[in-house]
Structures are given as C-alpha cells and as structure tokens.
C-alpha cells in the first residue's frame, strides 16, 4: 500500500479524530501511528508533502504531525500550503535542534515543535495539549460578538462582517484567549505561558508579530467596537465595547 493511502486504525478509530502523520522514515511513522491509536485517535500516514496535501483534504485531520526533512517538498513548504487553506493545528518534527528553526516554525504557523529523538509518549502528550487550547471560555458562552466581529470558541472560528477569517493557529489561539478576557491587560510573559506554553523558549517578539498579523486581518473592525491595544509597559488588551 502506498504511503499516501495508509490508513491505520483499530476499534477506537475516529473516536477523537484523525492525526495526519507526515514522515518519510517508516519506522518512526509506524511507532507514532501505534501510539496515537492507543490514545484513541485514528491515524493517516504520508511519506512526502505532495501526498500529504492530497490526503489532508480527505482525512480532515484534527492535527498534523509534520516532519521538516521530507523528500521533494520540505516541511516548511507543506506548512505554508496548509496555512493557505486551513488553521488545523500542526506540530513540527525535526532532527534540527537550533532555536532559530523552532522560532521559524512557530512564527510560520506551527503550534508546537519537537526535536528528534523524542519519546512517542511525549508526542501524544503534546498532541493532547495542543488540542486542549485555548482554555475553556470564561465569557459564559460558546460565542461572543463585539459589533461586526463574531467569535465562536467551540468551532474556533472568527467572522468579520459575516465573512470567515483564515487565521494561523497560534494567532487564533491568542485572539481567542484575549476574547475570553475582554478589556483585561496581559503581559507578554503571561500570553506566552497561556498560548505558546510554559516550555516555549523562543523570543517574546512572537507575541508582537502575532498581534501585528491579527491587526492586519481585523483592519476593517471599527475601533469604536473593539481593537487589540498595546499599553506601553503593561502589555496587550482586547478592548471591546460589550454593548456594541
């Protein structure tokens, strides 16, 4: 059976959703598939980027495990193309341990980053941690509306003037967290801990860059309804007119 068509499952298949494993080393992909099945997920294995992009549409995965060093199209390009069509969570897998690579992956839209060799059990734990983000909404509803912006926490969807916005997963998690706590101020360090995770060791500039991208997407959101504000020396705030 070709790598792009491998579909490993058991009696728990589909119970928690599908994990798409994009990895060209057969031994690694099979071990990962076994562990995610044991945790109650279905698995789909692809050995290269081209097959993976095709499989992504049919598998509709809950999360993608993406190796950086793939034959032909590398993992960075696969990530870029995935982000053009979806905000599905992505965890990068690589043998590179350089901090710069980790920052590139996270800033390009990856949700987490694991360096080989890794324990498969830890990969499953990371999968579960990413899929738990963001924390349970504190606004008392599955949805909140700030004027022309509507945010659906349950489906992790954001709409501006009725049109759905395509937002990179990490940026989306940041926006959802801020929207769960409207008009509260958060320091960068707090946002990194709650959104990026306590083990993140990259630059806190990641928060600034994520806010910059969100502001660009929300450019046509009237300021009197709401906006992401920078409070010098204090942090960030999603100002929202809750009566709009």
TrEMBL record:
Domain (OmpR/PhoB-type) ranges: 141-240
Gene Ontology cellular component terms for the protein in this record: cytosol; protein-DNA complex
DNA-binding region: 141-240
Domain named Response regulatory: residues: 18-131
GO MF term set: phosphorelay response regulator activity; transcription cis-regulatory region binding
InterPro entries according to UniProt: CheY-like_superfamily, OmpR/PhoB-type_DNA-bd, Sig_transdc_resp-reg_receiver, WalR-like, WH-like_DNA-bd_sf
Keywords: DNA-binding, Phosphoprotein, Transcription, Transcription regulation, Two-component regulatory system
GO biological process, one term: regulation of DNA-templated transcription
4-aspartylphosphate modification, residue list: 67
CDD domains given in the database record: REC_OmpR (cd17574), trans_reg_C (cd00383)
Descriptive protein name: Response regulator transcription factor
Source organism: Cohnella fermenti
